[in-house]
Structure formats: C-alpha cells, structure tokens
Amino acid sequence: MAVLALVVYQDVKLRLIHILLPVAIFGLGIAINWDLMRFIHMDWISSLLFLALNLLVVTLYFSIKAKRYVNPFDALIGWGDIWFLIALVPLFHFRGYVQFFVMGMLFSLVLFIVMKSIYPKYKTIPLAGFLSIFLIGTTLAQHLTDIDILL
After folding, report:
1. What sign does the CA torsion over 12, 124, 106, 82 have?
2. What is the DSSP letter of 136?
3. Ordered alpha helix ranges (H), the chain
4. Nearest C-alpha neighbor of 135 from the set 109, 99, 110
C-alpha cells in the first residue's frame, strides 16, 4: 500500500513516477504470490499479451485519427504508466488483470472528469496514480468486506 501511495503522490503531484516504484510493485507481487508462481506463468503471458493488444489498438486509433503513424509513448501515454501496468501483472490472474484494467480505466476516466471540473489546469490523466488509488480502494474493500471485486 505504501508503494502505491507513493505512485499516487508522484504521479498526481509531479506527473511522473520513479522507475523503482514499478520495480518494487513487481517484486512485491512476486513475493506475495510466491507459492503460486509455478502455476501462473500462462496468466502472465496472457496479461502481457492483453496489455500489448491494448497498446497496439491505441497506436492504431491515434495513427488513423492523425492520418500518420503516431507513437503513443511520446506524448499520449507515459512510460511510467506502461511500466506500472506491467508491474501489476504478478498481482493478478489473467481474468483479474483484465477486470482491473477495464474497471481501473473507467474509474480513472471518471476521476479525471471530476478532478478536471475542480482543477481545470489538469490536461492529462495521471493514469498510474489513479490506477493506484483504484487498487488501494479495491484491496481495502476486499479486506474489510471479504468481497473480492477483482477475481
């Protein structure tokens, strides 16, 4: 939770995250699920392919829209966001990763709309920070209610 809180702070306040934060999340994810490591390699591959497919679709969408090749990693999506999404892979089985990704993106969009109405200066979504807030919230909800929102 502390590492996720640092991601929130850095991404919302500084608009970037230090590379050690995704590394720490990845390492903690492996440590938390160490007993399951031999069973979930296919989940990792599936989750990474799902993420790659989404990034490919984003690239195609913005390239078609601009009528030229657009590299979304230059200005549209920060590398910290990509590393953060990769770092989360060990925390989930494939189905849970997809659910987290979809629900987290919707949460981030709604939170950005609310934040932009309060603070109009924000032009971009601090995605890693908002996804961290979502993960903190769903994890706390799971521990307090025993309801697993992200299977």
Report:
1. negative
2. H
3. 2-9, 20-32, 41-66, 72-75, 79-87, 94-118, 127-145
4. 99
User: Residue 91, exposed/middle/buried by CB under 10 A (0-12, 13-18, 19+)?
Assistant: buried
Q: What is the mean pLDDT of the chain?
A: 89
For residue 87, the tally of other CB atoms under 10 A from its CB is 21
By CB atoms closer than 10 A (0-12, 13-18, 19+), residue 128 is buried
Rounded to whole angstroms, how far apart are CA atoms 12 and 9? 6
Per the listing, tokens 């706390």 go with 140
Query: Looking up tokens 């981030």, which residue turns up?
Result: 108
Question: For position 12, what pLDDT does the model report?
Answer: 86
What pLDDT does residue 151 have? 54
> What pLDDT is stored for residue 36 in this prediction?
64
Contact, 145 vs 93, CB < 8 A?
no
Q: What is the pLDDT of residue 37?
A: 62
pTM strictly above 0.90: no
